[in-house]
Amino acid sequence: MPDGTIPQVSHSPKLAARWRVATNRCASTGIFDVLTISENFWNIEFWQQFVATILGVVLGIPAGLWLNRRQERQDVKKSSQERNARRSQLRRIICTATDSNRQIVMHLREHIDKNIVFFNVDTTVLDSTSAAKYELLDDLAACLAVDALRFHLHTLYREIELLLRVSFDGSLMALTTEKDGKELPTQQHLRTRLIQTIQSKLTGLETECRELVSLLGPQD
């Protein structure tokens, strides 16, 4: 019953005694639970742990976000430094290769009409970096200038290779070509034409190489 009284029943006294014991046990347990809750509520250690948990949540989230942003900034900075290093390296490589070809062009200009030349320009570096430069240089004018020089060097390379083959092609020695009413050996005629074609390009190529080296010079 709500007031704790034993209901009037017509059973034996033993049943009434058992009912009284059960009711007292429930009442004592409820009081104990209330006392336990009250004791925990005023427990200092409980509040210390509670406050620590709240502070951990309140301070931990901003701190985590700050650390994450800091790491992202460091990653971006590191990536930028690596990109700048690769850009500088690429500039130096292209400049070195271009200057080397400029010197080869100078030697060609001096010897092309006097001797059979067995050396040629080298486009290995310009070919291997043809795509990378557009990603790293961030300078469209410089990239286009490199590609223009690369094309001109390729053309010169093929002409020098052809000149070398013509110079040693035995099948041409027996042939003749008419020029200005005279018959000239076809081999000599072809060599002369090729040499003139090559010579007409060498001065411009030397200037082009020099200008490109100046354009891609040290910018660190």
What's the number of extended β-strand segments? Answer: 2
Shape: rod-shaped
| Radius of gyration over C-alpha positions, nearest whole angstrom | 47 Å
- Strand arrangement, largest sheet? 1-2
Uncertain segments are 1-11
Secondary-structure element series? HHHHHEEH
Can you give the helix content as a percent range?
Answer: over 70%
Average pLDDT taken over every residue: 79
Distance between the termini: 93 Å
Oligomer type: single chain
Helical segment count: 6
Topology record:
Blueprint: H1 13-41, H2 44-111, H3 124-128, H4 132-136, H5 140-167, E1 176-179, E2 182-185, H6 186-215
Antiparallel strand pairs: 1-2
Structural commentary:
The chain is mostly helical. It has a domain at 84-215. Helix content is 75%, strand content 4%. The protein contains six helices and two strands. The chain has helices at residues 13-41, 44-111, 124-128, 132-136, 140-167, 186-215, and strands spanning 176-179, 182-185. A two-stranded antiparallel ribbon has the order 1-2. A hairpin with a 2-residue loop joins strand 1 and strand 2. Helix 2 packs antiparallel against helix 6 (186-215) and helix 5 (140-167) packs antiparallel against helix 6 (186-215). The longest helix is centred in the middle third of the chain and has 68 residues, at 44-111. It starts with 12 loop residues before the first helix and ends in a 5-residue tail after the last helix. The relative contact order is 0.09. The model is unreliable at 1-11 (pLDDT under 50).
